[in-house]
Structures are given as C-alpha cells and as structure tokens.
Specification:
By secondary structure, the chain is of the alpha+beta class. The chain has 3 helices and 7 strands. The strands form 2 sheets. A 4-stranded antiparallel β-sheet has the order 1-7-2-3. It has a 3-stranded antiparallel β-sheet with strand order 4-5-6, with no helix packed on it. A hairpin with a 2-residue loop joins strand 5 and strand 6.
C-alpha cells in the first residue's frame, strides 16, 4: 500500500512541475506582467503562439502577421523592431529571421519565447 501511495504522489508531483521544467507558459507570463491577457488578445483578433524547440509553430507564420515579439523579460512591438534575415531575399516567414534589433540591443531568435499574431 505504501508503494502505491508513494508512486501516486510521485506522479502527481511530477505532473505539477512539468510545465515549469519545460518552460511552457513563459510567454504568457511575460504578457501578463505587461498587463496583456489571452482574453484581450482573443477579443482583438490576435493570438499568442508559444515557441519552442519541438513545436514547429514558427514554420508558417508570415512576418506581416506578427504584431509583437515576446522575449524572456519583455514584449517588443513589431514596429519597434528591425528584422535581420538569414537570407534577405526571402524574409517572408518567421523562420527566415536570424535576429531582431530592438530597444538598442540585438535579440537572437532563440531568445524569443512567443509571438502575438493576427488570427
């Protein structure tokens, strides 16, 4: 009986902390710190796309649909950012971006946790 209880507690504890270990929800937390909620985005016809190593979410996002870049600590409006592309002749989708220049610093794409895009 003790083994069953211990196993159940271990599984519950692992599930409770799994989001924090993977970084899931990081972009949403940054938005909330900037007083932007998912409800606000939905009502205004926008959505949050969280980025990660395995999501593949950025593969088809058109650069013109991006309204905001969400980094680990700030939100950057797309009009404030200068986009630097891997291949300047293409530059049509998010995965073509190498980095962005905003607020006086260079931000690599790997530092971007999420995008606010037009639905």
């Amino acid at each position: 009986m003790k083994k069953i209880i211990f196993t159940a507690l271990f599984i519950l504890a692992t599930n409770a902390f799994s989001g924090e270990l993977t970084g899931a929800g990081a972009a949403l937390k940054v938005l909330e710190r900037n007083n932007i909620t998912l409800h606000d985005l939905t009502v205004s016809g926008r959505q949050l796309v969280e980025l990660g190593e395995v999501t593949g979410a950025s593969d088809s996002i058109n650069v013109e649909d991006i309204e905001m870049f969400v980094t680990g600590d700030s939100c950057i409006e797309s009009f404030e950012a200068k986009l630097i592309f891997n291949n300047p002749n293409r530059g049509l989708i998010f995965k073509d971006i190498d980095s962005i220049l905003a607020k006086g610093k260079m931000i690599k794409v790997k530092e971007i946790k999420g995008l606010v895009v037009i639905k």
